[in-house]
């Protein structure tokens, strides 16, 4: 059974906050993939990355929807409902810096 998401109304067209994971760029750390918050534009690293900054941003902000952003992948995910969501548009990529080992 597929789950539904009741949070699509909060999806915004955003400007990415950085060309890579904000926190990893500040600390000099690395990431695997990037995720973009579709409420505020925060760019964080995915859960396959050591620091999981996108999920940390969700827990701190309660912004529910992220977009796969490395490269712009066009899919959305709702943390609250734990399901993929259709996004109304893709966010143009600003040219992220690749940071993985």
UniProtKB/TrEMBL annotation:
Coiled-coil region(s): none
Domain UBP-type span(s) in chain numbering: 3-101
Record protein name field: UBP-type zinc finger domain-containing protein
Natural source organism: Novosphingobium anseongense
Organism taxonomic ancestry: Bacteria, Pseudomonadati, Pseudomonadota, Alphaproteobacteria, Sphingomonadales
């Amino acid at each position: 059974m597929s789950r539904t998401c009741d949070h699509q109304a909060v999806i915004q067209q955003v400007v990415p906050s950085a060309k890579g994971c904000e926190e990893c760029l500040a600390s000099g750390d690395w990431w695997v993939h990037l995720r973009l918050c579709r409420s505020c534009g925060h760019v964080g690293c995915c859960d396959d990355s050591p620091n999981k900054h996108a999920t940390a941003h969700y827990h701190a902000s309660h912004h529910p929807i992220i977009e796969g952003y490395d490269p712009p992948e066009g899919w959305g995910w709702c943390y609250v409902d734990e399901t993929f969501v259709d996004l109304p548009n893709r966010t143009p990529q600003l040219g992220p810096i690749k940071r993985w080992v």
